Amino acid sequence: MKKLRILSAAAIVFALAGCNSEPSETEITQAVQKNIDQANAQVQKMAGSAIQTDGFMTKLHSLRKISCDQTGKGEQYNCKVEVDITAPLVGERKTVSQINLVKDNDGWDVVQ
């Protein structure tokens, strides 16, 4: 009976440990793309329909997660990623960047 309690307690600890896990590469990519989509929508809104905005849109080509470190309490992480992106006035570049992410009810979000 004692072994069963220990095994049950261990299972609960492992299950709870999984609840506070760092974002995956897919989740980081989705959060960054969501952020880019919001910025692009603002550009289109400001420019209106009379101006061709393609040259002012940011495009994410790829993202590779390098590492993530938990910051503070809860589900907040500072992640190091390699990003291949095309940005206005800069063009296409592949860089290593730090991205701050926080998890809420809708998934991961980039925080500035």
Structure description:
By secondary structure, this protein is an alpha+beta fold. Helices cover 37% and strands 38% of the residues. The protein has two helices and four strands, in the order H-H-E-E-E-E. The protein has a four-stranded antiparallel sheet with strand order 1-2-3-4. The longest helix is centred in the N-terminal third of the chain and has 23 residues, at 25-47. The radius of gyration is 19 Å and the shape is globular. It starts with a helix and ends with a strand. The model is unreliable at 1-18 (pLDDT under 50).
Q: What share of residues are in beta strands? A: 35-45%
Supply Rg: 19 Å
What is the overall number of helices? 2
Helix content: 25-40%
Q: What does the average pLDDT come to?
A: 82
Largest beta sheet: strand ordering:
1-2-3-4
Sheet/helix structural class: alpha+beta
Beta strands, count: 4
Characterize the largest beta sheet: strand count, sense, and whether it forms a barrel. Answer: 4 strands, antiparallel
Instruction: Provide the succession of SSEs.
Output: HHEEEE
The geometry reads as globular
The residue ranges in which pLDDT falls below 50 over 5 or more consecutive positions are: 1-18
Kindly report how far apart the N and C termini lie: 51 Å
